[in-house]
Every structure is written in structure tokens, then in C-alpha cells.
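Sequence only, no structure available. Ideas?
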Amino acid sequence: MADINAQKKRLSRISRHRRVRAKVSGTVERPRLSVFRSSKYISGQIIDDQTNKTIVAATEHELDAKTHEKLIKGDKDRRGKCSIAFAVGKILGEKARVAGITKIVFDRGGYSYTGRVAALADGVRESGLEF
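Reply:
I predicted one. C-alpha cells follow.
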């Protein structure tokens, strides 16, 4: 029974993502920030949809073990996975600024804009990118 519910949930997310992607696309001037969230990890990539190329990407695996452990404990504002998502967003934003990107379009990937997805977006904003 759990497999059927998980499959329905996944198909619903894919359906929401298709609706979002029908309206959101990245250009050279404003590439698309795509978010992927699994139960354990979070990642983001900045994509130019006109050339179908990933410009920059960041994932939770880029954090070293010491930083990862420190982020899990968190601070008073963010703890656990949300603090890790915020750090991934900051890494992604820094990489984008080095690549010369200042403005992006946000693609939440069919996920609701709360928790880890919002924390990643906040991290990207804090590093200087505009949505």
C-alpha cells in the first residue's frame, strides 16, 4: 500500500512540475534555477534552456563532513536539513556570481515553496542573485 501512495505522490509532483515548466523557462539573460529535493538530499542547478546546458550546479555533497555536522545542529533560525539547504543555496549563488549571473528565474520543481526549498532560495538570494 505504501508503494502505491508513494507512486501517486511522485506522479502528482511531476504533474505540478510540468505545469510550472510550461510557464517558466531560462534564457541567457535570466537562466532558470531548478531545485531537486529528495528525502535525504537537496540540489540545485542553473540552466540555460535555450542551449539546454547546465551553467552551474551545487549539491549537498559539496559540503565537507565537519561543516555538514555543524549545519545539522544549526542555529536558532534554521536546523537540520533546512540549514543544509541554505548552505547549498549560498554555494550555488557564489558559483553563479563567479559565472557572471545576477538575475535568475526560480523553478521549484513541483515542490511546495516551504522548508528546504524556501531555505535554498533564501541562500541564493543572500549571495546576491535576484529572482
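Residues 2-23 form the longest helix (22 residues).
Hope that gets you unstuck.
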